[in-house]
Design brief:
Chain A: Keywords: Membrane, Transmembrane, Transmembrane helix. The complex is a heterodimer of chains A (510) and B (97). Chain A has 510 residues and is an alpha+beta fold. Chain A has a domain of 69 residues. Helix content of chain A is 61%, strand content 7%. Chain A is built from 21 helices and 7 strands. In chain A, strands 3-2-1-4-5-6-7 form a 7-stranded antiparallel beta sheet, with helices on one face. In chain A, strand 2 and strand 3 form a beta hairpin. In chain A, helix 18 runs antiparallel to helix 20. The longest helix of chain A has 33 residues. With 97 residues, chain B is mainly α. Chain B has 3 helices and no strands. The N and C termini of chain B lie far apart (47 Å). The interface between A and B is medium-sized, with 36 and 34 residues.
């Protein structure tokens, strides 16, 4: 069999199969570049004055005591103080039975818990495990493997990779124009797409490929991590803890050792036990490989027990690759580039799907109605559901129990509605235009809703005080709304197709 | 695809060779490299594991480029068994520091 023909088949079918899943992963990952900004937008009850100073009147000891009052026998406590992109406290604990992590966002001034929201972390989680836990991680991993294969086979079949890059024929027939778009976004984004798929797989390599640890460590993963990242661990003695040393004093010591760097996550392992350990991790956000320089102290005496050494060798490569994926090293510029490249990835996927559809619209083919319905349900449904989530965030009652779960329900409920509508209208034309119009209305409505319900967070307040992180979300919504509106107006109701073929396409499945 | 089998059967065989055989080969190669790379133990494991996705991708591409599904199965299984056997024969050499 001819190599290029074999690779074309692999690219067409191996690319089609995961493309809706990949669209979800790419879209959610693009939004997750600005997860902390979205999180702030989704917390309108954050006091504005606190952001101006970024200084909190709470102390680490107060936050620890608050956590211990909720869970005196917690397995571990985790605390993260206010930071420039995240002007509030995170406080959480792992319960004594090592069950689900419980976390709370605390008002930096009053120390009271903020109202519950899934926040920007929702998109981050959707990106890497589809909000489905470990099974989701495996599904996302499989999609990423399909993507690597689709990229490599795509390169092999693309003999005129350089020439086609300068080819865009928007006036050409549907299939040719969509193929040009698919190639344009695929080829410009190629280095990014290869990198992001490979590094994304690399992050969870220990889950996807346990062979190395099973062979060279006989399955003892803790021993591997001990060697690789110089971790410290002290077993419980099951004797009660002595009175704890001040976390604030220990932090001051840690910051002196770091040369004044800011702390990231602070943890207390088995706080009620005699062997309790406090760990401070440095917030390093300027290099690709984020060496945490973890300092471990005895929780009672305050004695320094262990100082993490810099990552070296193979583990340094691992942290460098995962750092490259997570885009925390170059500030807003890098985040913005990743957002644009991620959206270019979405465009490549949509282009590829449209090539598949228009090729078969012209000559008829099996599965056309199914693929078209999935296109509408996912490519249209996910962005609309994301907008619906932001409406849920503002409109659900503040004191609702399980408010986060209600927001999630709004998201998936809206998505299911759009999907059902698309399936119901699968034989009719103009679905895309209607979804674009709805997206435009929803996106333009959000800054308005923000103004009506939470005026202190609206553009009229955030722009005058130069609060760009908050204003950028509203401005982006306005841009998206206008762009969708223009597309909805300009888009022809249907791509003209040969008459006989269109009848075949419409007749199918009816 | 061999002449006496249907195209559908050939495709199904290739798909399973790519998904299962490809994973098997990348598993064996990770175990092999974790044993024989001339590095410290943690580095061997990290480097070998990070390479596994490249091996998997190459295996899938090969399966669909191969002249027949049977040949793809033979090559993948053969290489996987060789690498696995070498790792198994190395015994405790794999856990050296």
């Amino acid at each position: 069999m001819n190599l290029r023909r074999a690779m074309a088949g692999l690219h067409t079918w191996g690319g089609l199969l995961p493309s809706w899943l990949l669209f979800v992963i790419f879209f959610a990952g693009s939004l997750a570049c600005f997860d902390k900004e979205l999180e702030r937008w989704m917390r309108p009850d954050l006091p504005v004055a606190a952001e101006a100073t970024a200084a909190s009147s709470l102390s680490l000891d107060q936050v620890r005591d608050w956590l211990l009052s909720k869970a005196p026998d917690a397995h571990a406590l985790y605390i993260h103080g206010p930071a420039p992109r995240q002007p509030f406290w995170w406080a959480g604990y792992v319960p004594a039975d090592e069950g689900e992590f419980q976390s709370f966002a605390l008002d930096p001034v009053s120390g009271a818990p903020l109202q519950e929201t899934v926040g920007g972390a929702f998109f981050f989680s959707l990106h890497y495990d589809l909000n489905a836990g470990t099974p989701g991680l495996y599904i996302v991993g499989m999609a990423a493997m399909f993507m690597l294969v689709a990229l490599v086979s795509g390169i092999i079949i693309h003999r005129r990779i350089f020439k086609d890059f300068f080819t865009l024929r928007p006036g050409a027939n549907g299939q040719r124009a969509w193929l040009d778009a698919h190639n344009l976004f695929g080829v410009t984004g190629l280095p990014f797409h290869l990198m992001i798929a490979y590094t994304g797989l690399a992050i969870f390599v220990s889950l996807y490929m346990p062979a190395g640890v099973q062979t060279a460590y006989r399955g003892d993963a803790m021993a591997f991590y001990g060697d690789a990242m110089s971790l410290f661990h002290r077993e419980e003695t099951h004797r009660p803890a002595a009175p704890a040393a001040s976390l604030d004093a220990l932090l001051a010591d840690a910051q002196t050792r770091w040369g004044g760097a800011q702390p990231g996550w602070i943890s207390v392992e088995h706080p009620a036990d005699e062997a309790a350990v406090v760990e401070f991790r440095r917030e390093g956000r300027t290099r690709v490989s984020d060496y945490q320089w973890t300092l471990a102290y005895d929780a009672a005496s305050g004695e320094l027990l262990h100082e993490q050494t810099p990552y070296a060798g193979g583990y340094y490569v691992y942290t460098w690759l995962s750092g490259l994926h997570m885009a925390q090293f170059g500030g807003h510029f890098v985040r913005f580039c990743y957002l644009l490249l991620g959206l270019a990835g979405c465009a490549m996927l949509v282009g590829g799907l449209r090539v598949w559809v228009s090729k078969r619209e012209a000559r008829g083919g099996r599965g056309l109605v199914l693929v078209r319905a999935l296109n509408g349900a996912v490519v249209g449904g996910l962005p609309l559901a994301s907008l619906a989530l932001l409406y849920g965030n503002r409109l659900l009652p503040a004191q609702l129990v399980h408010r986060g779960r209600a927001e999630t329900l709004v998201f998936f409920g809206a998505w299911a509605l759009v999907a059902a509508w698309v399936v119901w209208r699968r034989h009719r034309l103009g679905n895309d235009r209607r979804m674009l119009a709805l997206g435009s209305l929803l996106a333009l409505g959000l800054p308005l809703l923000n103004l009506l319900l939470t005026p202190g967070n609206s553009l009229l307040a955030s722009l005058p005080r130069g609060d760009w992180a908050l204003a950028a979300i509203d401005l982006a919504l306005l841009v998206v709304g206008l762009a969708c509106g223009l597309l909805a107006r300009r888009r022809p109701a249907a791509v003209p197709a040969p008459r006989r073929a269109r009848r075949d396409a419409l007749g199918e499945g009816a | 695809m061999s002449q006496n089998s249907s195209p559908a059967w050939g495709t199904a065989s290739r798909v399973s060779a790519a998904v299962l055989g490809g994973y098997g080969l990348s598993y064996a190669s990770t175990a092999f490299l974790s044993t024989f790379l001339p590095m410290a133990r943690a580095d061997r494991v990290a480097v070998a594991s990070l390479l596994c996705f490249a091996v998997y991708t190459a295996a899938v591409i090969y399966v669909f480029a191969a002249r027949s599904a049977a040949r793809a199965w033979i090559v993948l299984l053969g290489m996987g068994i060789l690498l696995g056997l070498a790792t198994w024969l190395a015994g405790d050499y794999a856990v050296r520091p």
